Amino acid sequence: MTVWHDLVGQADVVDSLQASVTAADAALHGELTAGMTHAWLFTGPPGSGRSNAARAFAAALLCEQGGCGSCLACRTALAGSHADVTRVVTDQPVIRVDAIRELVRHAALAPAGNRWQLMIVEDADRLTDSATDALLKSIEEPPPRTVWLLCAPTVEDVAPTIRSRCRSLVLRTPPTAAVAAYLTERDNVPAPVAAFAARASQGHIGRARALALNEASRNRRREVLRVPGQLKDLGSCLTCAANLMEAATEEAQPRVEALDAEELRDLETVYGAGTRGVKSTGFAAAAKELQKNQKQRAKRFVRDAIDRSLLDLASYYRDVVAVQLGSRAELVNEELRHDVATMARGTSAETSTRRLAEIFATREALEGEISPLLALEALMISLRGLEHE
Ligand SMILES: [Zn+2]
Known about the structure:
alpha/beta, Rossmann fold, 3 domains, 15 helices, binds zinc ion
């Protein structure tokens, strides 16, 4: 299994990365080629695998065989523990200049091994202006064996000064059949479950795996898809909103708790707490700062989970529109075709389209400071109201 194995439905991207790996190898052996670029930008919709692509490319550049997938270089690069791969991953809304300065300093050094060193910035869309400036200098005059790999949802999300100096690779939403085949092959998921998960995830690989492997995820999704049929009166709207909120909190919790505990342990190690029984100076302040960041992250995880629910909800109304417009294509929620068809007969395509618009407006509003519960309540009420106009 080569390093490209986890890039589902991205044959074109894999081809051009592989060609670049060959060119890079030639460059390492002293043959100057135009094929090597020192800054890359991986873009693609969420779940299409842009950070996987960056990691696979890093592994292939570090592998003596161009990405065999099994040597030590490949395995450590893919796992994120290779000495010549440095990653900036953030769960904060922005990447600040100090993080990038540190990275740029590191980038100026020679690689530990005899090949390349890769600097991966997974959320290049979150760079602050000063972080962008700091990064730009290193990208403009890259150290000879340093390669920058930036990832972002779209090219437009990255500052023009940066993106104009990067070679751009665009990942597409992987086709349903490719996702289903991947689930079956990689995780031994039975074909019908794989087909369902691939459809329901709408090409988001991580989401597809969660739906295929995790019964709780499937149950939560089923609950979300019951919502359209439950919005009878004000009371049921509020109940649905509360249920969605609760499900999102429940979904976020295990990851939040695991990450919080791990970070606190790390902090205690850094400050020597536990070993000497006393916490050294600075611990209290650092712990307070950590707590603040963790609280923010917990909030965002809940919002992310709500966003996934809203996408599921939108898929339902989109199916309704598809039926209303006479489409014969497979529905995202094929297993609910009967309910979808009933709703399609009882409402107009215009109503369904307006409901979709309401859902997308709510998703956008949730990126701001609005209370998620209030936003969900308002959405449920307007989804119901549209039927009774
Ligand atoms: Zn290898």
